[in-house]
Design a protein that fits this description.
The protein is mostly beta strands and 169 residues long. 5% of the residues lie in helices and 27% in strands.
């Protein structure tokens, strides 16, 4: 079973039955903890209990919708290559130790991402954003700015192979 997708259901029984086979999961989970899935690689998650995600050491893609909490637990996910955080405007410093993280999508974020020097692909959505700090991202090849605030994009175009300006003021 490559993909399992259920919303607002008690996933415990379903996942326990297929736990060793699940590679991808998209869910809105309301349980006290997410059941164990040893081979999970891809997770789209909307829920209220995240600390148990660190037990999924093989996750390479994580999509967290409506998450506003502390992301320090993500520093344990050493295989993570791609991360999407929606409506997150907290401290991203726990991500600096993730050497395999090459793709990051941040929506409604106004912080500084310049410490994530290994990024090759970045999507930023922020009305308050300033792109001047992005010049420190020497590995960055693909940049998407959505509803972005201010800045001179000419300083970034030298190293980029892809630039998408959704809405730039």
């Amino acid at each position: 079973m490559a993909l399992l997708q259920y919303f607002n259901l008690d996933l415990t029984l379903i996942i326990q039955s297929y736990a060793g086979e699940i590679l991808e999961l998209s869910c809105c989970y309301k349980g006290s903890e997410l059941p164990k899935m040893p081979n999970l690689k891809y997770l789209e998650y909307t829920g209220d209990y995240l600390e148990d995600i660190i037990s999924y050491k093989n996750i390479v893609h994580l999509d967290l919708s409506i998450f506003r909490g502390n992301i320090s637990f993500l520093s344990e996910l050493k295989s993570l290559t791609s991360l999407n955080l929606y409506n997150f405007n907290g401290d991203i410093s726990p991500l600096t130790g993730l050497k395999s993280l090459t793709s990051l999508d941040l929506y409604n974020f106004s912080g500084d991402v310049s410490s994530l020097t290994g990024l090759k692909s970045l999507v930023l959505g922020s009305k308050d954003g300033d792109i001047s700090s992005l010049t420190k991202l020497k590995s960055l090849r693909s940049l998407t700015l959505v509803d972005f605030g201010r800045g001179d994009i000419s300083v970034l175009t030298k190293s980029l192979t892809s630039l998408n300006l959704g809405s730039f003021n």
